[in-house]
Design brief:
about 400 residues, single chain, alpha/beta, 5-stranded parallel sheet
Length: about 400
């Protein structure tokens, strides 16, 4: 078999395409575009193995356009300009549409993306970009404004199962145990390419594809987690929100996802130090001590044992009493600095460091230890705020 199985099974018609019903069923955006035979530039955003490349080919085929595949990994702006030049000639002399498909378009920096913006604007090319990264961060705003952004989802297990049923027909001399198929479906994690690669490898290992063979072929669950991309931010966000919601089980789930995907344990530890102060605060003042100790211990011990330390701290923070009093207080104080007049510090609070300042009244009548004076029965009325902020409350205890 010369071609990879994933290429052999790549759908040739839209009716063979599996998944992405939210875009491809009757009345949905891409389906409607294809039916009208009028397509627009678009960005296909989704995880690996969800069908971005296949969908781009089928869209181009539906309008009988000249499909030009292009990889941002192996090619540069020079090649883009050559393609645009050819597209202009094709359009002028043969009235043919050029559909330029750029895989991993996020690999182009924003100045490089400018190279094909004019050709998109004047209709020389119809651009279809595929990316696993959030287009809002990685694609030029002018290009985004001239394109439709479509979000592709990871394939559902039922979709992966349909694809595998087609796949095993290409191996008539092999037998597949049901448990093996279920294992591949489960651990493909919505990635059709990963599932097909597992089938292909499994058939090279044995004629009878058992669960054990499937496990050997797949090795382990392929977790899509780009440490510089959306998945990174989404997972750490879910981790923080689970601790904030006092859900230790969800906290451990997202911690495990990050560790399994190879996240830097020190990054996790640093975030917990911030959380201990921002979200737990003085409701459980030992939280910041534990979080800081965790960060130091993780640094000294390293993985894999560091995961135990991280889990201990994360579950403590998740189950601790919560308070944002300090966090809210400093933000409110900073906001007043921006919005209100900065009035002088009261004289009695100022530092009387020399004769001149003393003569100006610095430090006059200041009671250094009010609590001692009050214990002695003296009444202390001493203002600490500037005049325009008298009575202002920043620190409001919000726990019992």
């Amino acid at each position: 078999m010369d071609k990879p199985l994933s290429e052999i099974l790549r759908p040739l018609t839209l009716s063979d395409f599996i998944g992405q019903e939210h875009l491809l069923t009757k009345g949905k955006p891409i389906q409607s575009m294809i039916e009208k035979k009028k397509i627009y530039s678009m960005i296909l955003w989704g995880p690996p193995g969800c069908g971005k490349t296949t969908l781009a080919r089928l869209v181009a085929k539906s309008v009988e356009g000249i499909y030009v595949p292009f990889s941002a990994v192996t090619n540069g702006v020079k090649e883009v300009r050559e393609i645009i030049s050819q597209a202009k000639q094709r359009k002028e002399f043969f009235k043919e549409m050029t559909v330029l498909f750029i895989d991993e378009i996020h690999r182009f920096n924003k100045s490089q993306q400018d190279a094909f913006l004019p050709a998109v604007e004047d209709g020389t090319i119809t651009l279809i970009g595929a990316t696993t990264e959030n287009p809002g961060f990685e694609i030029n705003a002018p290009l985004i404004s001239r394109s439709h952004v479509y979000v592709l989802k990871p394939l559902e297990d039922k979709d992966i199962l349909k694809i595998l049923k087609k796949a095993i027909t290409h191996y008539p001399s092999h037998k597949f145990e049901l448990g093996a198929i279920k294992h591949i479906v489960k651990y493909a994690n919505g990635d059709a390419r990963s599932a097909l690669n597992a089938v292909e490898l499994a058939t090279s290992i044995a004629k009878l594809v058992s669960v054990k063979v499937a496990e050997e072929a797949l090795q382990q669950k392929s977790i899509y987690y780009d440490k510089k991309g959306d998945s990174h931010y989404d997972t750490i966000s879910a981790f923080i929100k689970s601790m904030r919601g006092s859900k230790p089980d969800a906290t451990l789930h997202y911690l495990a996802r990050m560790l399994k995907a190879g996240e830097d344990p020190m990054f996790i530890a640093r975030r917990m130090v911030i959380f201990a102060s921002e979200d737990v605060g003085n409701a459980s003042p030992t939280a910041i001590v534990l979080a800081n100790s965790t960060m130091q211990a993780v640094h000294m011990v390293g993985m894999p044992e560091a995961q135990i330390i991280l889990a201990q701290c994360a579950t403590y923070l998740a189950t601790a009493k919560k308070s944002t009093a300090s966090y809210d207080g400093i933000n409110s104080a900073l906001q007043d600095l921006e919005q209100k007049k900065l009035e002088p510090i009261p004289l009695h609070l100022r530092n009387a460091s020399n004769k001149v300042t003393k003569e100006q009244g610095y430090g006059n009548n200041h009671v250094r230890y009010p609590w001692k004076a009050e214990k002695e029965g003296k009444k202390v009325e001493q203002e600490y705020m500037p005049n325009n902020l008298k009575g202002k409350k920043y620190y409001k205890i919000d726990w019992k």
